[in-house]
Amino acid sequence: MGTMQHFALMARYNAWANARLHGCVADLPEADYRRDVGLFFGSVHATLNHILLVDRLWSRRIRGVDPGIHTLDQILCDDFASLRAAQRAEDENLIALVNGLDEARLATTVRHRRLVGGHEAEARIGHMLTTLFNHQTHHRGQVHAALTQAGLSPPGLDVIFFIDETGAGAAKS
């Protein structure tokens, strides 16, 4: 599997994992959804909001568009229904973004301003995408643990489950 195929697989996996996780979050009582349960951003809501925020931040940087994001805890959506819809749209935008890239573009360096510290930085697009996908996995894991602690049974989110369920990445003969 080449680099472009890998990123395309990860973009589709990302949408699948978010949808599965959101399906379980929908069963979480509102009080538990909002409660500070010790996640890095406190609550399940704040953590899901942060995932959406960082997706927008990196994808817009890659596109060369001002992300309009000023802090890592900026609230983009104040309720689960709008957050879920916004994440679904962002996931589709990310799939389209990745599908529009090629190897040469992945190696392109993008300058941006870091939110933490406010200094100018630069990164290759391929590294930005790797960061985005790794970031998603990290915070989805936190939400997964919070759902388990709340007595729910969150779904498995491993990439191999996505491949098994969807046939994505099937070996070509």
Summarize this entry quickly:
The protein has about 170 residues and is mainly alpha-helical.
Attribute tags:
173 residues; mainly alpha; Four Helix Bundle (Hemerythrin (Met), subunit A); two-stranded antiparallel ribbon; 7 helices; 2 strands; 61% helix; 6% strand; globular
CATH class: Mainly Alpha
CATH topology: Four Helix Bundle (Hemerythrin (Met), subunit A)
The helix content is: 55-70%
Which parts are unreliable, with pLDDT below 50 for 5 consecutive residues or more?
none
Q: How many H/I helical runs?
A: 7
Rg over CA atoms, rounded to whole Å, is 16 Å
CATH architecture: Up-down Bundle
Q: Strand percentage, roughly?
A: 5-15%
**Major β-sheet strand ordering:** 1-2
Structural class assignment: mainly alpha
Order of SSEs, N→C?
A: HHHHHEEHH
Kindly report how far apart the N and C termini lie.
Answer: 13 Å
CATH homology superfamily name: dinb family like domain
Oligomer: single chain
Instruction: Give the overall form.
Output: globular
Rounded mean pLDDT is 95
Total number of domains: 1
Major beta-sheet overview: 2 strands, antiparallel
Count of extended strands = 2
Topology, please?
Layout (H helix, E strand, L loop, with lengths): L2 H23 L4 H5 L9 H20 L16 H20 L3 H4 L2 E5 L6 E5 H25 L9 H8 L7
Antiparallel strand pairs: 1-2
How would you describe this protein?
This protein is mainly alpha-helical and 173 residues long. It has 7 helices and 2 strands, in the order H-H-H-H-H-E-E-H-H. The chain has one domain (3-166): Four Helix Bundle (Hemerythrin (Met), subunit A), CATH 1.20.120.450. It has a two-stranded antiparallel ribbon. It starts with a helix and ends in a 7-residue tail after the last helix.
